[in-house]
Amino acid sequence: MLYFIIFMLLSGIILNALSEKYAFKNVTFKREISKKIIEIGEELEIKISVSNKKLLPITFLQIIQNLPQNSNLKEKHINIDNEKSWREITTSVLPYQRVNRVYKDSYDKRGVVNLRDVTLKIGDLLGLKVFTKNIDFFQQIVVLPKTIDIQETIVPYGDYYGEISVKRWIIDDPVLIVGIKEYTGFEPQKDIHWPLSLKHGSLMVKKYDYTTDNKVMIILNIETDKPFHTNIDAEKIEKAISIVRAVAEELEKTGIPYGLLSNTFLIFNGESKSIIKSGWGGNHLISLLEALGRMNYGIECGFEETLKKMLSDRTNVGTYILVTPKVLKEYISDINKLKKQCERLVLISLDDTNLQLLDNDILTFVERGEDKLWI
């Protein structure tokens, strides 16, 4: 009996020493995400797995994951301290066994959610010591901009009235004539209104509610003041990004090719660039929306510099749609020049400042609620 006890003690000591030496030997961690691109508030499943591929059991295993700041995860395993939160799971793993845990999470802000900083803690067989290993298991989730109803978000500014239709910003309908305008040399000669041209003493052309060239470039500005790093208006920037999404989705429905230019860096199909060339189709839309989701407030250049790029560009674009938190005085000259270079220029501003300085031919919209001049 004594020998048996001694044997058991020695065996325990040896096994405990082995469990210490090989605590993380053949132990693997894996995390799987059900969706990599989600909407604000949309739930996704996160599955974590720990495999123990050795003869020794793991009697104590603790998995600690730091949670993103905008995580909506609420359960008993969550700990919060100094505005940081983390999730702890404690379990044990038999030899050659894998344990899985699945939980759901959602995020309440647009942007990139980075998942990393996983810590594994393993105890020895006797519970005397705990060994720690940090794992940088980097993964990303992109939360798309908030969806909006463009009809409920913007209203016409100045002399433009009626239904807000993105399609009617782009496509000509010879039946739908909303007025006349002075001939600039870009319009087809068939659109010249000869009787009114004689009356006014200069060439006048029919003004349609649609435009003839179906290629569109959306230009997004995220600058809200000068210098650009001061007075960042995050609320208006987020609204502008959501408007770009709504416009792109409308263009996608109509089959009109569209691209995106911005004065911040865009991550498109894994590459950093300032312009997304015109395209169409489900993959193009998803990639563009992902670029909007990844967008931050870092500005590459002032918006007037972005406009100058378009002025020097020889790409055949019929319609430009400018979306901006506000129109600074520095933009006015280049916006007016851009209008003279294209068939149609649509401007959506979330502030009515300086809009009276723009050419009358620019189709201008403002945020609903800014009801000073357009009721």
Structure description:
Helix content is 23%, strand content 34%. It contains seven helices and 20 strands. The strands form five sheets. A seven-stranded mixed beta sheet has the order 12-20-19-18-15-16-17, with helices on both faces. Strand 15, helix 4 and strand 16 form a beta-alpha-beta unit. Helix 6 packs parallel to helix 7. The longest helix has 21 residues. The C terminus is likely disordered.
Keywords:
Immunoglobulin-like, seven-stranded mixed beta sheet, elongated, alpha/beta, 7 helices, 20 strands, 375 residues, 2 domains, five-stranded antiparallel beta sheet
Task: Give a brief description.
The protein is α/β, with parallel strands linked by helices and 375 residues long. It contains 7 helices and 20 strands.
Percentage of residues assigned to helices: 10-25%
Largest sheet: 7 strands, mixed
Mean pLDDT: 82
Q: Structural class, please? A: alpha/beta
Structural domain count: 2
Task: Indicate the CATH architecture of the largest domain.
Answer: 3-Layer(aba) Sandwich
What is the topological layout?
Layout: H1 2-21, E1 27-33, E2 37-38, E3 44-52, E4 58-66, E5 78-81, E6 84-93, E7 97-105, E8 111-115, E9 118-123, E10 130-135, E11 139-143, H2 150-153, E12 154-156, E13 177-182, H3 194-200, E14 204-208, E15 216-220, H4 234-254, E16 258-268, E17 271-279, H5 282-294, H6 303-312, E18 319-324, H7 329-341, E19 344-349, E20 363-367
Parallel strand pairs: 2-11, 15-16, 15-18, 18-19, 19-20
Antiparallel strand pairs: 1-3, 3-7, 4-6, 4-9, 5-6, 8-11, 9-10, 12-20, 13-14, 16-17
